[in-house]
Amino acid sequence: MSGPAEFKEKTFEKYFGFELARLTNITFSPDQCDERFIGFDDAFHMPWHFLRHYLPYMRNSRRRRQHGISLKDFDFHASKVSERLPDFKFNLFVQYKRPAYVDHFNGREWSSWGRPYFRFDVTPHQQKILADMEAHSHGRAFVVYASAAFWMNSDLYRFSAAEKIVANTNVSNVARLVGHGRYTYDGPGTFGIGHSEPEKIESTSINQIIERGQSQKGLKFTAHIKRAAADLKRALENEPQAMAAVDQVRIANFGNLFDELRDSDAAAESFLYALSTVEAFSEIFDVTFYAMG
Asked: Which of 28, 199, 222, 278 has its CB 3.0 to 4.6 Å from that of 82, i.e. a possible disulfide?
């Protein structure tokens, strides 16, 4: 038999992210499903519950409306919160993949394995942009695919209960798959094969990524996010369509909030503008962003 995993990508992402957060001293990941609670001109998603204690105009429910605060005031408060947090050292961008399980010789890639395997498709042009973004970070960002090395719901919940989701995941570096449209693997770890022309690929494990990331210089939270946004913008300099899409998503999420930023220098100084860039990039390229310390 062959077919897609019984669970959805988002379900797998939730359990993987929970374990990932336990592997470092501090982890931050925006969640667009979090409560909308800050009262700007328009409601928007704020991911950090710790800011509730510092921001003076807070939306207590979706229906109530506050007058809000200015962008400058928000950046000021975010800077004050940042001073209380440990330093952040690197970013991890994860694109979660729902694998298909193949256990029949009719599978297109069966000749590469001669036994049951998993596979997922990738988008070549998207891979190149993600790889460029990693390169522009100079060691402060890693971009990987994460795909379960199992396909049944029963295994998902069993591994989750034992906190073994990461251990039973295949992780592959996006940069090493550039030029391929499909990836196959037969178990957890970092080994797989890129297709269509089969190429054996050995990637970097999550533990190795964390070890390398920890060697980077720590930055305060707001400075770290601004650095990440600057790296993303450099990666998109030759991708006008992608950059335009980032701007469109930012407008959709934040309305005219950033109209007061008339030039790139002013935008570079705004923490919230930087975070909106990271969030928009993550949404467009369907990757989950983790800032890690």
From this structure: 222
